[in-house]
Amino acid sequence: xxxxxxxxxxxxxxxxxxxxxxxxxxxxxxxxxxxxxxxxxxxxxxxxxxxxxxxxxxxxxxxxxxxxxxxxxxxxxxxxxxxxxxxxxxxxxxxxxxxxxxxxxxxxxxxxxxxxxxxxxxxxxxxxxxxxxxxxxxxxxxxxxxxxxxxxxxxxxxxxxxxxxxxxxxxxxxxxxxxxxxxxxxxxxxxxxxxxxxxxxxxxxxxxxxxxxxxxxxxxxxxxxxxxxxxxxxxxxxxxxxxxxxxxxxxxxxxxxxxxxxxxxxxxxxxxxxxxxxxxxxxxxxxxxxxxxxxxxxxxxxxxxxxxxxxxxxxxxxxxxxxxxxxxxxxxx
Length: 333
Ligand code: UDP
Ligand code: MG
Fold this sequence. Notes:
alpha/beta; about 15% strand; binds uridine-5'-diphosphate; binds magnesium ion; eight-stranded mixed β-sheet; 11 helices
């Protein structure tokens, strides 16, 4: 029988986690599959971890959880969940019930037709108008610049087959921009639409600044085209500068020496200074990324975890189990 793993990153979700669990189990129980729910507590400061412990007590065989030592971000939480997941297919869902659990059945249908990634694409109902407009603009702009296709409304709510999950786990990078990684690994992908639900309880963890930074990650994580742009901008400005210098020289020769042109000079110095700072920042951003990648720090630290007792490895099996996990995670030793 197919086993499905549901991966759920949770950060300060105590208000909604029990409701999420009940609704999701109700859906999963009605499907002809085995399942497990892998919660990842991303360093919540509220009672999320206590709720997860209680859920694991109530459903010890179908609940796993991992709790981080601090907040490492949703990307790290998804990675931890993927590492935990043992199913033939993995569904990644938010804990706030914005990703309707009822759609899991539809995802499984599409999976059984042979698709490796089943992507739920949401409408933007329930989002603020400004955020919607900015998102639209961002996706339009970003798709010109990055090598992978990013689609508005397509997020982390998706089903991944085992090969796709393994492919994602084999990507070693520290800076993980999942939207791009999902698209980068490829495989047979199918998308369906659903109406976005408003958050059931709790509040969004995205502040505007965080969204801007996330957007910048999307632009820079996938290629060096911004650096290429910097070169072209430099060439263009140098060309324009040359033309201007030629024009000033000719003008001075024809009409005699002109007024010194103080304003022009200051404008050019300030303008070019600004452009140089932006380019330096851009280069610095790439260097910073190289710096972080070379440190090879783990993506997260776990302070507590629960695995279903039935699957806890016997002492003799432990080595084999460890070996299997390492093979699965691409760290073959
Ligand atoms: N989340 C997380 N770590 C974070 C921020 C968010 O694990 O640092 C989880 C959060 O608990 C939720 C999901 O990621 O399950 C989506 O977060 P949120 O609903 O705040 O984002 P939005 O739906 O507004 O994009
Ligand atoms: Mg949400």
